[in-house]
Amino acid sequence: MYDITNRETFGHVESWLHEIGRYTNTESVSKLVIGNKCDIENKRQVPTSDGQDFCFKLSIPFCETSARTNSNVEEAFSMIVSEILQRRYVLLGDFSSFLSFKMWAPLCLTAQCEGGCHDARLIFDV
Questions:
Q1: Are strands 102-106 and 121-125 parallel, antiparallel or unpaired?
Q2: Cα(27)–Cα(52) distance, integer angstroms
Q3: What DSSP line would sit under 53-66, residue for residue?
Q4: What number of other Cβ atoms are within 10 A of residue 41's Cβ?
Q5: Mean predicted lDDT score pLDDT of the chain
Q6: Is it the case that residue 5 has pLDDT exceeding 90?
Q7: pLDDT tens digits, residue range 35-90?
Q8: Contact 113/64 with Cβ under 8 angstroms?
């Protein structure tokens, strides 16, 4: 998570991801990059497109949120949970995560503060 009103925090995201790779098997770790404080548009230092482009290159989901206004917070949580379940399903062949319910799996790389999370969704029926 980085602060969209502080460019320096965005610069740290790459090193944080490097640290994850250094200490874990990155293929088994679910990741989501979040730009926080999207409610403070007048102080924005990191354009949404910078976060989108960075995450697109690394195939990591991206979302902008506001903890203050609760904008996209639930969507961000749902995105990471779906990412975890998908990874578990794909890597481990663990179907138990999908039994008896429909899972909405976000495939998006972008989410806008205004108007909610804009993404494509996939339904898994098991």
A1: antiparallel
A2: 21
A3: HHHHHHT--EEE-B
A4: 11
A5: 77
A6: yes
A7: 999 999 999 999 999 999 999 999 899 999 999 999 999 999 988 888 888 877 76
A8: yes
For residue 104, give the 3-state DSSP assignment.
Answer: strand
Q: What is the pLDDT of residue 93?
A: 65
Among the listed residues 112, 110, 111, 108, the one whose alpha carbon sits nearest the alpha carbon of residue 120 = 108
Do residues 54 and 13 touch, judged by C-beta distance below 8 A? yes
> Which of 109, 115, 106, 56 shows the shortest CA–CA distance to 81?
106
**Angle 6-9-13 (CA atoms, 0-180°, nearest 5)?**
145
Q: How far apart are CA 89 and CA 69, in angstroms?
A: 33
- Quote the DSSP letter at residue 109: S
φ, ψ at 63 (rounded to 5°): -150, 145
Q: Which two tokens stand for residue 62?
A: 């991206």
Tell me if residue 98 falls in helix, strand or coil: helix
Query: In Å, how far from its chain's centre is CA 24?
Result: 19
How many whole angstroms from its chain centre is CA 126?
25
How far, in Å, CA of 82 to CA of 88, rounded? Answer: 10
- Give dist(CA 126, CA 121) in Å, integer: 16
